[in-house]
# Entry
Amino acid sequence: MDFSKLAEELIQHNEDMQRMRSERPQRIIDESTRGEGAVLRFVFDKDGEDVLPSEISKGIRISTARIAATLNSLEGKSLITRKIDPQDRRKILVQITDAGKEQAAKELAHLYEQTTNMLKHLGEHDAKEYVRIMKKFATMQRPSDNSMNNSNASDEADEKN
# Structure
C-alpha cells in the first residue's frame, strides 16, 4: 500500500481538526486533558491524598512551570490547597477542597456528556472504530512501548478480529 497518499490526506484532515479545536465540544475535551480541568481531575482522582506538583506534571505531561501557574489559579478559586510537607519542608503538597471535588465531578460529567454526544454523532460502527484506533495510538505513544516498530503484527491481529 502507498501510505504517502494516505499520509497526505491525514495531514489535511489534521489541519481541519486544528481549526475545529476552538469549537465548543472539542474545546471541552481538550481542556479536560490539559489545563485546569486536567490538573483538578488528577488531584481529584487521588481520593484525598496529598499530591506533589511534580507528580501532577508527570501524570498529565505538562511542564512544572505550567503546573505552578495552574495551581495558583486553582488555589485562587479555592479549588485546591497547598501546604508545606512537614517531613520535607522543600516539598509542597496539593490537596483538593470540597469545592474542587464538586467542580471536578461536574466537569467530568460534562466531559462524558460531550464525548457521548460526539460518539453518537459518529454512529455505532465509526464510534467503536474511533475508540479502537485512539487506543492503538495511545499504546503506540507510550515511551516504554515499542509497538510503533511492531504495528504490522498489531494490524494483522486487528484485521482478523
Confidence is low (pLDDT under 50) at residues 145-161. Helices lie at 3-20, 24-33, 35-45, 53-60, 64-76, 98-122, 124-140, 151-160. The radius of gyration is 19 Å.
